Amino acid sequence: MRSTTCFNCSDRERATFELGIKLASFFHQYLGAPINLGNVDSMERAMREGILNQPFVLDAEITLDREEIERSVSEFGYCSISERMMAGRITIEYKGFEAVGELHWTEELRYPLMRVVAVGPRCSENDRATGQ
Q1: Domain extents in the chain
Q2: Helix pair 11-30, 40-52: axis angle to 10 deg
Q3: Phi, psi (deg, nearest 5) at residue 114
Q4: pTM (2 decimals)?
Q5: CATH 3.30.1300.20 is held by the domain 9-130
Q6: Over the stretch 52-64, which tens digit does the pLDDT of each residue have?
């Protein structure tokens, strides 16, 4: 069985679905991981590389809130990654459609909001550079 036969949706919808999977895996895979200010950079790189290894991912930008980490570090020298610390932007390409989504803590909702920013036909690099 090929994976393409498992989906009864348009390519645009599939791009959006794949984006949701990547955002959720970023959040749930790393929530609770041990961290301190000494390993934040390497953790961000590892998170990004892990996302980039997944199918259809074009780009991933990951940020951990260093101020929140500093406030949360215990007397033992580390803390666990919390939803307030995580932020990211992921771009997916599936069969000519590009989907962009974000994850960030939203204080108003008191919730780690995952949202679709844009979905549409993928632009070429040249189109992006010229603003078309």
Answers
A1: 9-130
A2: 150
A3: -105, 130
A4: 0.88
A5: yes
A6: 999 999 999 999 9
